[in-house]
Each structure stands twice: as C-alpha cells, then as structure tokens.
Amino acid sequence: MNAVNTAGLDDEARAIVVALGLAEHPEGGFYRETYRAAATTPARQGERAASTAIVYLLPRGSISALHRVRSDEVWHHYAGDPLELHVLDEANSTRTVHRLGGDVLAGERPQVVVPAGLWQAAVAVGPRFALCGCTVAPGFDFADFEMPHRDELVGRMPALAAVVRALTR
C-alpha cells in the first residue's frame, strides 16, 4: 500500500486507517473498496458490477466534498461520531440534511439512501471521526463520479450558493 497522509488524525483514527488499509479519497476522507459483485448488470451508463461497497472514514473537521454518482448509494454508520449527510436536488434547488449515526433515539439514522444523480456531501460533526460504509447499486465506477469545481456548482445552483461554498473546496 502507498503511504497515506494521516497528519491531523487522532491516534484512534490513524490506527483505523492503517488497520483497514484505507487510502485517501478524492472527495476527502479515507476509503477502501471491500466488495465488487462478480455479477454485472446493464446500467444507463453501461455495464456495471451489480453492487460495490466501501468502508469510509471521515476525520473530525473534514468534509466529503459535493459530488454525485449515477447509481443509488446507501450510507451505513459503523463507529465513531455521527456525520451530517447533505443531499442537494439541483432540479428543485432543495437540500435535505440527514444525521447518520448510532443514536437512533436522538434522531440519528444508521443508514441513509442517496438516490442516483443527486448531489451529496458529508460533514464530520464529532470530535474524532465517523466510520461508515457505502454500498452502490449498480456498482460504483469512477467514470460515473462527478465532483465539479465550486464555481460551476454555484452557477448551476445559485439558490444554494452558500451551501455549495461550504461543501466544496
């Protein structure tokens, strides 16, 4: 495995990144693909694995920058602090915020679905990290991943400009 920049992580988050063999993700945080179905399925964007899964760690104070994929994505919370999952619907200029975490009685949810084609970003809200998983069906392919520049997204969603600025780099 290539060296991963774990500067700024607390000891527990650093140990998890190493133990799980995580790499830096382009949107922020650390990940590793853990499953890719051998079965394939036709998708709008071409033949894809039927499903894929990753484990994903988002450190305190970090964001998973606004991006979208062309398949449904199910987020699962495994350990650590909760995170806020922001889902933006470009067609309606709306934002929904889900709190992903283990304290169900406080309104957190252990699982959240982001429908295909909607913009999404995650924000770590606790003092340590959030350890999650993401399952995508049809399976994830970087060819289906979009993470445009902040200015482009502001131009596409001017009513959500402040949110877009906060959730992009």
Q: Output the number of helix runs.
A: 3
State the helical fraction.
Answer: 10-25%
CATH fold title? Jelly Rolls
Low-confidence stretches: none
Average pLDDT score:
95
Number of strands: 13
How many angstroms does the end-to-end distance come to? 27 Å
In what range is the share of β-strand residues? 35-45%
Sheet of most strands = 6 strands, antiparallel
Element pattern in H and E:
HEEEEEEEEEEEEEHH
Task: State the CATH class.
Answer: Mainly Beta
Give the tally of structural domains.
1
Q: Shape, please?
A: globular
Radius of gyration: 16 Å
CATH superfamily: Jelly Rolls
Strand arrangement, largest sheet? Answer: 1-2-5-12-7-10
The secondary structure category is mainly beta
- Give the second-level CATH assignment, the architecture: Sandwich
Notes on the structure:
Helices cover 14% and strands 45% of the residues. It contains 3 helices and 13 strands. The chain has helices spanning 11-20, 150-156, 161-166, and strands at 23-24, 30-36, 40-43, 46-49, 52-59, 63-69, 72-80, 83-89, 94-100, 111-114, 119-124, 129-137, 145-146. The strands form 3 sheets. It has a 6-stranded antiparallel beta sheet with strand order 1-2-5-12-7-10. Strands 9-8-11-6-13 form a 5-stranded antiparallel beta sheet, with no helix packed on it. A hairpin with a 5-residue loop joins strand 1 and strand 2. The protein is globular and about 40 Å long.
